[in-house]
Amino acid sequence: MRLLLALLVLIAAAAPALPASAGVPFDPFGSVAVDTPEDARVPGGARFTDRTGAPVDLAEVVAGDVPVVLAPVYYDCPNICTVSTASLVQSLSLLTALEPGTDYRVVFFSFDPREGPGKAREALAGLKERRFDYPGLDQARFLSGPPESIEAVTRALGYRYAWDEEIQQYSHANAFAVLTPDGRVSRWINAISVEPTDLRLAIVEAGNGAVGDVSDFLLMLCYQYDPTTGKYGPIIDVSMKAAAGITLAVLFGFIGLALWREHRNRNRRAP
């Protein structure tokens, strides 16, 4: 029992504190960034329009009992946005252990005020044309909104973008947020190439115990979030230190056993 407690202490001492997402810049491109304020959350009163033309409050859309994948997008982006959005949906389709609508929800919103419900419908249609085997696509919300709502949300979340007059396009970070059920930013994930493991871990972490199974929580022990890359990576330091601690404990155990046997044999030989 004492050996087990010693091992647990070694592992706990080896584990580094997980870095927080708040206040740490994440800049996939180098020209624009995500710089999340402390306790960032979706503000109330930001009015948007869904793809059917119905008005919605974004804070009410993301509120609920499960985490939300919130993706700031540029529906008409001629560059990498379409690829990153497709990468997100493809990764979502691989999360077979998590059920869309039950374990998490997905919301896209455009930061281009010129885009309306028509562009939102085109974005959904474009994703459907790729024939992703993702049952949650029709459940996903595709929103557009006026400048004041877009500004309120992006400023609150720390998502920065800018209009480039020279090329007549938006310059923006390729990243999406994973929100807790109460609308707070849990993590920003690099959207240039979305890894299913990153997505799974971010959703489970944002769920704070309400989402995922035992295998997910075991996986969380082996990975940590890196805010400089927007990805999760294996906790190599912890694994190596834990392995070293176990090795030392076993070694000391063998030494102790050998000394005990030697002492016992010496006592037996004594007259």
From TrEMBL:
<protein>
    <submittedName>
        <fullName>SCO1/SenC family protein</fullName>
    </submittedName>
</protein>
<keyword id="KW-1133">Transmembrane helix</keyword>
<keyword id="KW-0732">Signal</keyword>
<keyword id="KW-0812">Transmembrane</keyword>
<keyword id="KW-0472">Membrane</keyword>
<feature type="signal peptide">
    <location>
        <begin position="1"/>
        <end position="22"/>
    </location>
</feature>
<dbReference type="InterPro" id="IPR036249">
    <property type="entry name" value="Thioredoxin-like_sf"/>
</dbReference>
<comment type="similarity">
    <text>Belongs to the SCO1/2 family.</text>
</comment>
<dbReference type="InterPro" id="IPR003782">
    <property type="entry name" value="SCO1/SenC"/>
</dbReference>
<feature type="transmembrane region" description="Helical">
    <location>
        <begin position="242"/>
        <end position="260"/>
    </location>
</feature>
<dbReference type="Pfam" id="PF02630">
    <property type="entry name" value="SCO1-SenC"/>
</dbReference>
